[in-house]
Amino acid sequence: MNQQPVVSVRNLAIAYETARGLVPAVRDVSFDIHRGETLGLVGESGCGKSTVAYGLVNYLGRNGRITGGSILFQGRPLVGQSEEALRKLRGNQISMVYQDPMTSLNPVLRIGDQMTEVLTVHQKMRKDEARARCVEMLRRVYMPDPDKVMERYPHQISGGQQQRVVIAMALLNNPALLIMDEPTTALDVTVEAAVLDLIADLRRDFDTAILFISHNLGVIARVSDRVGVMYAGELVELAPVQEIFANPRHPYTQGLMRCVPRLGSSKLDSVLYPIPGRVPPPHRLPPGCAFEPRCSYAREACRAERPALRPLRGTAVPHMTRCLFSEEIDPKQWRPPDDFALPQPANDGVTGETILSVEGLKTHYRPASASLLGAFGLGRRDVVRAVDGVSFSLPKGKTLGIVGESGCGKSTLIKTIIGLEDMTDGKAEFIGFDLRRRAGQRELALIRELQMVFQNPDATMNPSYSVGQQIERPLRRFKVVPKDRVRDEVIRLLRAVKLDEHYYDRLPRQLSGGEKQRVGIARAFAARPDLVLCDEPVSALDVSVQAAVLNLLLEIQREHGTTMIFIAHDLSVVRFFCDYIAVMYLGQIVEIGPAEAIYAPPYHPYTESLLAAVPIPDPGATPTHIRLQGNVPSPANPPSGCRFHTRCPRRGLLPDGGRICETDEPPWRDAGEAHRILCHIPLERLRTIESTGK
Amino acid sequence: MVTAERSLQLPASPSRWDRFKARLQPLVRSKTALVGLSLVMFWVVAALFADDCLINPACWFGSPDYTPRPLIARYDPYQSFRGAGLQGPSAEHWLGTDRQGRDLWARIIHGARIILVLAPVSVLMALLVGGTLGLVAGYFGGGVDEVVMRFLDAMMAFPQILLYLVIIAALGPSAVNIVLAITIAGAPGIARLVRSLTLDIKTRDYIAAAQTRGESPWYIMFVEILPNARGPILIDAMLRVGYAVFAIGTLGFLGLGLPPPSPDWGSIVNAGRKFIQAGHIWDALWASLATASLVVGLSLLADGLSEQLNKYR
Q1: How far apart (Å, rounded) are the C-alpha atoms in residues B2 and B17?
Q2: How far off is chain A from B169, nearest CA to CA, in Å?
Q3: In terms of Cα–Cα distance, which of B137, B213, B285, B123 is closest to A440?
Q4: Could you give the C-alpha distances from A231 to A8, A138, A281, A486, in angstroms and in order?
Q5: What is the per-residue pLDDT across A14-23, written as a single tens digit (0 to 9) for each?
Q6: Count of structural domains, chain B
Q7: A469 touching chain B per CB within 8 A
Q8: CB of B215 within 8 Å of any CB in chain A?
Q9: CA distance A454 to chain B (A)
Q10: Which phi and psi (to 5°) does residue A531 adopt?
Q11: Inter-helix orientation angle A111-122/A83-92, to 10°
């Protein structure tokens, strides 16, 4: 390309003023983005991805500033421009899309008003003209019924539609540069897939330069032309998307790819290799290569000086790397370090006796009514059927994964099992105990055998007590060990989760997210329970930490023969980790069976759509075109017949356009080996649908 | 807690003194808090060492032949100097004397003793009552919440001063009744604060973790929730001590404070009020200044603390 790039960043350095002095957040970052090109920036949290984006529009907050380098936007320098000039530019030429659409939309303005304002303020367009443009733009982002949407308030449309509105708004001025900061991270996988489709289409139509930031390799592979990998504020590798996935040449990039499970791989046939250590804090960077302390290839030369970003030798593609030995390190020759203990999943092939059996479990809520009448019990109150008739059984020592979009009742189901919610109806039995009562009223012997690992590492530990005190509590309460041995047992547990005894007196705020999650796991396993319920234990963690935590769970499970129920929204992680999988939709299980059977045909149409939506970290993968329309209906008023019929992409396979789906509840179809599908479509027909397990 | 002792055995962990210093850090770093702290500390030290009771073992056990020897106060607050009534400040009587010829400096300093016991004790009582009610209402929610909070709302509908007057008028002026009045009037406000904090904290995962351990509601309320609400509660309490100082002063001024001849600040202002027009402003001036400086000191301390707490959030 010989034309002038839209943005040209050279040696950009950004620092934040803090109590510790000037802390560098971004150092020495250089890249160009041309018209119609998408540059993906990927890296773990705290690597400076977002700071680069904010630096481009000089939106760094009060304590941040650009300390070096230059940014050329369409040939004009941006650094040193006045606030006023930058504001004009931001409105007219540069647009940004953020992670949470709700924070970008003004909740008290109608969508139409917010959108037209962009045009009337920045381009002085007439009101009716602006309105027509907005409707047209909404149509371009595939918004159903754009005229009606213009009249609605942001809270009246779904998250996916909100993000569409934000994208449409960003495109209204036909910007030269569009910055997208994790635009799909807050969305469900099915919605994410649709938004990514949209971004891919817009890239073709609008000829805009896009800077796309994500922590998800799959998402990056889907939308980018070129990919920049960031680590500790530096760009460590920059190459075309095909090249970076096929031939990563920086040890960090290679490490990242090794620690995410591929869709379809399982704990039996693959291993996740976490990157040891953690990202160095920006005020204590190592003197040499920033990745050297965690790098298995590190040599003396790496410690001596900071490597520069340089072109890879001996290749025709423009491939930049910040490693001294990039030519020598072949990802295919990589061997795990000797001290890396291979996690061996517990699979002796023998199916143990059933430890947990649930039959027709229902959990209904009566939401508190907001109206005055409701306070007196007079208002009409809809019952929310969060879990509505779930049955399954789980053999000892196995792991059951539960997947589904948000709001399908996954969390409510396990909260009911553990006794945090009241069971409305049904039966649940666990090693001879009845699970109908709440945790507070259960016998100590039962409470001890049922423990839970929580999602949010920042909320899983009480900030007022030290790590040791919090692990001690269950030990003392359940009298797991004699009183004088409690401290030794805590230290043993800390060692088991790969933390040393110095952590005993640390307070939660002194720990990283991964460390907090480990302590949470140690606390859950302290009572030596038979069944551990994990509610998205790795979703809030960075991929390298996620791999370590998953390995840890596998190891502890093997050691104690613990049974687990595992919720995650990442289908690759669930496939990797679980023996059995249940797919939930609107409070019901629609498909259940052994993990390998779920990820291969015959699929329930919902499972098929979920699998099709998973972004694959392989730019060569052709995206499947099954996309779910609309939102999950309200569990207060579920559709009649088959609950999935309003969104089902396969209804056409039935005679009469699937009228039966609207009227009759579907039957369970047995596909063998405990694999069951809840669908009207006969198994033979479902089998003919192609595999989406790439 | 348990680990406080345990930490001493570990060489790697910080000593108690270090922890104490770390706790004080936010106080020293904020100028506002520092000014407030010095004002408050002035009165605390003056009250502690008004006479030698604190350092004389004879006083501790109420020995019959013990008579307190004034230190900072310089004179006994009840001693009348014959023919020295209504004097202005002098080298002999730093702040002057009142109508009965008693030294004002001695009376103000001893007045600090009373107020610095009564105000914190009454706030502590209010914390105990209000905190428990707030925790119970917030944690259990539902009907319990409705009943408790509506009852407290009804109490809050009365002006505080009216509550004080009614309670003291009914029970008679005494130190115990003053504490009781401030406790009853202050508890609803504290309950509201604690309830709102509880509503927030009880949704955290660590509370769910405690519930899945089958912990009793009281354990969860007092051990898991309360320590995490301490920051706002502490700041609120400090402001409330300031209000209590005012309230006790007001009651004294209205003649509902401690009965004479107690060196109550409010009573001193009330007694001195009559002589202002006669040109003897000192009684009223010093006692008012004392009240004001203590209240301002407490407010500044609370402001500085909350500023620092927010910074580290």
Answers
A1: 17
A2: 39
A3: B213
A4: 20, 37, 11, 41
A5: 988 877 778 8
A6: 1
A7: yes
A8: yes
A9: 7
A10: -130, 125
A11: 120
Q: What is the pLDDT of residues A394-443, one digit of tens each?
A: 998 899 999 988 878 888 999 999 998 889 899 999 988 888 888 888 88
CA–CA dist A302, A322 (Å, integer): 11
Bridge partners (DSSP) of residue A250 are: none
CA distance A483 to chain B (A): 13
Contact B212 A451 (CB under 8 A): yes
Name the residue of chain B whose CA is nearest to A534's CA: B209
Residue of B nearest to A442 (CA): B214
Q: What is the pLDDT of residues A480-493, one digit of tens each?
A: 899 999 999 999 99
Tokens 């295919």, residue located: A332
Torsions phi, psi for A536 (to 5 deg): 45, 55
pLDDT at B136 over 90: yes
Least Cα distance to A302 among A333, A329, A337 occurs for: A329
Nearest to B215 by CA among A476, A69, A191, A593: A476
- Verify whether the Cβ–Cβ distance B213 to A420 is below 8 Å: no
Q: Is B228 contained in some domain? A: yes
DSSP notation for A75-123: TEE-TT--HHHHHHHHHHTEEEE-S-HHHHS-TTS-HHHHHHHHHHHHS
Optimal mutation site among B18, B212, B308, interface A, most CBs of chain A within 10 A: B212
Eight-state DSSP code of residue A502: G
Q: What is the DSSP string of A293-312?
A: GG-TT--HHHHHSPPPPEEP
Residue ranges in B141-281 assigned as alpha helix (H) = 142-156, 160-171, 175-201, 205-212, 217-219, 230-253, 265-273
Q: What's the order of all strands across the beta sheet hosting A384-395?
A: A384-395, A354-365, A425-430, A433-434
Say how far apart CA A69 and CA A90 lie, in whole Å.
20
Residue recorded with tokens 């998973």: A614
What domain range is B293 assigned to?
31-54+69-76+94-310
| 8 Å CB contact between A64 and A51 | yes
In total, the C-beta contacts within 8 angstroms joining chain A to chain B are 72
Name the β-bridge partners of A362. Answer: A388, A425
Cβ-based contacts of B213 with chain A (< 8 Å): 439, 447, 473-474, 477, 527
Measure CB to CB from residue A477 to each of B1, B7, B213 and give the nearest one: B213
pLDDT band at A339 (very low <50, low <70, confident <90, very high): low
State the pTM of this model: 0.82
Q: Quote the CA–CA distance of A488 and A492 in Å, as a whole number.
A: 6
Taking the C-alpha atoms of residue A65 and residue A84, their distance in angstroms, rounded to an integer, is 17
Q: How many CA atoms lie within 13 A of B180 on its CB side?
A: 13
pLDDT digits (tens, 9 = 90+) for A528-543: 899 999 998 888 888 8
Q: Cα separation of B225 and A299, whole Å?
A: 50
Among candidates B10, B12, B211 on the partner chain, residue whose Cβ is nearest the Cβ of A439: B211
Check residue B1 and give its pLDDT. Answer: 36
CATH code where residue B294 lies: 1.10.3720.10
CB < 8 Å from B in window 472-531 of A = 472-474, 477, 487, 502, 504-505, 520, 523-524, 527
Q: Report if residue B130 sits inside a domain.
A: yes
Do B10 and A505 count as a contact with CB atoms less than 8 A apart?
Answer: yes
- Average pLDDT taken over every residue of chain A: 85
Can you tell me the distance from the alpha carbon of B39 to that of B292, in angstroms, rounded to the nearest whole number?
Answer: 10
Structural domain includes residue B83: no
- Taking the C-alpha atoms of residue B231 and residue B222, their distance in angstroms, rounded to an integer, is 15
Cβ of B208 within 8 Å of Cβ of A420? The answer is: yes
Neighbours of A172 (CB within 10 A): 22
Residue of B206, B220, B223 best to disrupt the A interface, most CBs of A under 10 A: B206
Whether residue B116 is contained in a domain is answered as yes
Closest chain A residue to B9 measured between Cα atoms?
A: A505
Would you state the structure tokens that stand for residue A71, as one six-digit string?
């940014």
